[in-house]
Structures are given as C-alpha cells and as structure tokens.
Known about the structure:
The chain is mainly alpha-helical. Helices cover 38% and strands 0% of the residues. The radius of gyration is 18 Å and the shape is globular.
Amino acid sequence: MPKIRTLRTKKPPEGWDLIEPMMSEFTRQMREVEVAPTESRRKVEMLWPIHQINHQRSRYIYDLYYKKGEISKELYEFCIREKFVDPVLIAKWKKPGYEKLCCLMCIQKSNQLMGSTCVCRVPKDRMDEERKFECRHCGCRGCASGD
C-alpha cells in the first residue's frame, strides 16, 4: 500500500509563543464570524467583520515586526507562508499615503461605482461633517493617511 502524504507545517520558529495567544484569538474570532447568523444584515455587510479581523491580524504582525522589532524575520516570513497575514496589504502600508489602508478593495478603481477613489480614502476634512459614510466593501469610515 502506498504511503499517504499529509500536509504538515514546519515547526514554528522561535518567538511563536509570543504571538500564539493573539493568533489563536484572531482565529477564534474569525470562526465566530463565519458561523454567525446573517439574516439581519444587508448583503454588503456580511463580509465586513472578516475584513476587519484580517486587518487587525495583519496590523498586529506588521507592528511587531516593523514598528517595535519584537519578532524575527523568520517568524514574520512564517506568518506570511502560513497565511496568518496579508502580505500585499502589509506591502501597501509601507508606502507613503497608505499607512492606514483598511483593505485592498478600497484602492482598486475597478471596484468603485464611478471608477474613482473609495469614500473611505477621502480625508475627513474634505467630507461633509453631518453625513456618515462607510465603505461598501469593508465598512471602514476613513482610512486616509491625511486624517
């Protein structure tokens, strides 16, 4: 009988015990959102919590590696390889003007109604104070770096 191959992840690098509680908490939150009832929500609101948790998880690792320097490069690359974080979103955060970007769908012009910028990318000082805007993709109320 042939040997069955199973997918096994490599042993996590040193420092994993530092971030493991937070990663398991994000995973638990994601599972709760996935099984939560969606009858009371609008169709566009169903994915908002998933985008928010993905943003929080990626921002947590980004801050630990780039801002605080508390985790090693090996651990950072392990998180990318095991898909704990969104590497494209993190790459955008390193560019000027995108430091507070909420999701990648907000900067894709093909996803917007008029083919321009998402409403959450407009600085708050240029918006009407009385009206509350939210991004239809992720529910963000403002991720422009000029805020």
